[in-house]
Amino acid sequence: MSIQNAWLARIDDSNRCEHSFLTPPDRCLFLGDFHSCAGWAGGAINQLIANFKRPRRQIEREPVGERLRRHREHAVGTISAALRRQFTLDEIESRCTFVPIPTSKCRDDPNYCDRLERTLRIAFDGYASDIRLLLRQRMSTCSDHCSGHDRMSYERLFEITELDPKYLVIPLRPIVVLFDDVLTSGKHYKVAKSRIREVFPQQPIVGVFVARRVQPRAR
């Protein structure tokens, strides 16, 4: 399966148990399944995510770095085109504020990657969209997918995540759309949602993900 013609599906009672931080009030949507531990053999979406998350340091150091960069940019374009199809003109220009969930690296870190923000900007290029880097981490960390079993706790992630006040000067639109590449446990989404709700307790918030993680079935 690819996301070329995919439409957003909802996390519901049939799959919520696979994302331990999510509860029924959380509204999360995704375009496809990312098969954990399957690598490239997991299919088109696994390949898309691998290219999308390709780190800058690998592109800069690998002999085939230029080819890897082209693959990453193709993934950005593919995801942007898919996102563009999911929203109406009214949602893009009037109803939604789009917020990338912070990556593991601070914006001044040399390894910071702006792929989420760029994807949103390409997706809604030409529209009067509202895309904001509303959330940020106060320090760079190791990304969860590179941390093995030593992943950061919810409490620690919440502690280092904050709202950037310069993006609060203009009121938010009626719905905040939190955007990320892969929904795993839901920890980052819940931290982002909780931080926004501290300031805007009644703010409707939706999570939109390129894919959700699907764990391999026990044999």
**Largest sheet: spatial strand order:** 1-2-8-7-3-4
**Distance between termini?**
23 Å
Average pLDDT works out at: 92
Number of helices: 7
Classify the secondary structure makeup into a structural class. alpha/beta
Report the biggest beta sheet as strand number plus sense, adding barrel if it closes.
Answer: 6 strands, mixed
Domain module tally = 1
Order of helices and strands: EEHHHHEHEEHEEHE
* Approximate shape: globular
Low-pLDDT regions:
none
**Gyration radius, in Å:** 17 Å
Residues in β-strands, percent:
15-25%
What is the count of β-strands? 8
Q: Which range best describes the helical content: under 10%, 10-25%, 25-40%, 40-55%, 55-70% or over 70%?
A: 25-40%
Report on the architecture of this protein.
- This protein is an alpha/beta fold.
- It has one domain (9-214).
- It is built from seven helices and eight strands, in the order ββααααβαββαββαβ.
- The chain has helices spanning 44-52, 56-61, 65-84, 89-95, 115-123, 154-160, 187-199, and strands at 9-10, 28-35, 96-100, 130-131, 135-137, 161-163, 175-183, 205-214.
- The strands form two sheets. It has a six-stranded mixed β-sheet, with helices on both faces. Strands 5-6 form a two-stranded antiparallel ribbon.
- β3 (96-100), α5 and β4 form a beta-alpha-beta unit.
- The radius of gyration is 17 Å and the shape is globular.
- The mean pLDDT is 92.
